[in-house]
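Q: Fold this one first, please.
A: Sequence and structure below.
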Amino acid sequence: MKRSPTIARVDKVKDTSAEVKAFSRDFQAVMDEIGKIIVGNKELVRDILIAFFCGGHVLIEGLPGLGKTLLVKSFSKALGFEFKRIQFTPDLMPADIIGTQLVVEREDGRKEFRFAKGPIFANIILADEINRSTPKTQSALLEAMGEHQVTVAGNTTVLDEPFFVLATQNPIEMEGTYPLPEAQMDRFFFKLNVPYPGYNELKDILSRTTTSESYEVKRVFGERDALKRVLEMRRLVRDVLISSEVQEYIVNIVMATQPENDHQADILSDDMREYARRYISYGTSPRGGQAIVLASKTVALLDDRINVCFEDADKVVVAALNHRILINFEAEADKVTTRDVLKKVMDELGYEG
């Protein structure tokens, strides 16, 4: 069932509040600061910031040497929050991430257990090459990412806000790599790809990195106001309006990825239903729908609107769902990707004529 073009757009609100304008202004200011160091990749930086202001985490996939680590460092400097990097290796243990209990001697000579915090206790975490560690170590991030807390020896410690994990993984299959389990993939708000730089971008990168000239990222928010401002922007995202038609469109996208869902008969053609059943093993979870809604609200704010339109959702569907759909061996044999599946779903549910 295709949506009508008469409800495809929601016009800009003429009397946009100062709060909405301030959101897009501050968002752009952070992007500009990151742009002093990161050449190109504006869409990538934008999507990372969208996930951050929605309160989610990001998984980035790209070949070595494309500036993933530099991007996260620049991101943390522009926002002004504490940053820590965790290099995942096959011998990394969960205690190396979250911390451990140590036996220490007090002044009176008695001994006691004291918790030594791990590198997870920071605002912005770079989990570098996360697929190089074992599943046991990868799972150490699950509680922290989902609950913003860690539990060691029965004691729970709450992490400071904001808490944002940006994990990277290399697409190269090498000895000693462990693909992320589907349960952990679902914890990430977005999965993004870092492309090779273009011709002009590569020339700019070489010019900037092989001279004595330095570029400095300045923090956008004041030291005392950073947390308050981020929480205000996150609250504003959730206050954005979404119509029942747009929400229904998002629900239909999610259900269209679920091969055994009976609702598919009401929204998809027979050919599309057969396509989904042929190539998809498991569809997206409700978290996928939540990610689309929140990201769409942020996109609306960046366009100085306080309501979501269909195009806002279209811009974030692939980033929100491409890691939440499990395709089968037949899809791999036919060189069909999750991106291909999502594009076909959106075409099926898109405009008439």
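Q: Good. Now the second chain.
A: Here it is, same layout.
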Amino acid sequence: MSTVSPPNSEQAASEFIETFNRIRNEVARFIVGQEKIVEDVLIAVVCGGHVLLEGVPGLGKTALVNTISQALDLKFQRIQFTPDLLPADIVGTQILIDKDGRKELQFQPGPVFCNILLADEINRATPKTQSALLETMQEKSVTVAGQTHQLELPFFTLATQNPIEQDGTFPLPEAQLDRFFFKLFVELPSHDEFSEILNRTGGNSAPEINSVATGQDILQMGRLLRDVPIDQPIQDHLVRVVRATHPTDPNAPDEVKQFVRYGASPRGAQAILAAARARALLDGRFHVAKEDIDRMALPALRHRVMLSFEGEADGKSTDSIVQSVVDSLGG
């Protein structure tokens, strides 16, 4: 496949970068630091993917999602997941109404009927309720009482979870984790960032966030990504990276063979490719490079690699496993 840019690709790439930076700069008016997290969340959004944000309470995960929703002219809904939350509380249910003197069932949409859904502390809900999001996240639709209701596009689920509190939580199963485009870790702010957070939030007023892009802008950016070419050798490298997360693959490093039970799915490869295309455009290139694949491998694969019992007992992290794969293949 040729890396020659098609006609008007320069202008399209320039518009992509301009819109992306406009959203990022607007978010940065309220969110202090976290530049890499913000960029990766926005990459997932323009790729049409869902994001799992993990971090201890108070690091601004919910504020980040709320700020992004304000910067985009999109409908935003927030669900606080609790153990007593039911699937109908998310997707909606049939209710009995009186119409012209007759009783009939009518579908009452749940909060999932929005553009940006914040699933706060998603691991606090029971598996039955968590699974209610599966069709919604994958198919962008809801089926209740045999009727399928399409969600309005774009639609993104940005979920948060607390990694340190285990009581009253239900770890997301592999099938649910695989629906997330990225898993991102929200880190503790630096000293200077702490001070700036206090400056922005401790006064009488907070920065006002304006809508700087629409849903159609996001959909158009996503369509452009599909036109960004990838050479066959680069695509082969992507496939080798994903396959090398499986202990049965000949290219798998020793760390994978020893500590991994299951590797990443083809959905992981799809996520890397889409994100690498976005990364290439943001770097001013209309073709995917090897460094784009290596850069996007970690957030796309860390939640798709399942450690073996030995890996868990040895305290291994999926981050170190994925990094060892990238390094072993010349990253």
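Q: Anything worth noting on the second one?
A: The first strand starts at residue 50 and ends at 54.
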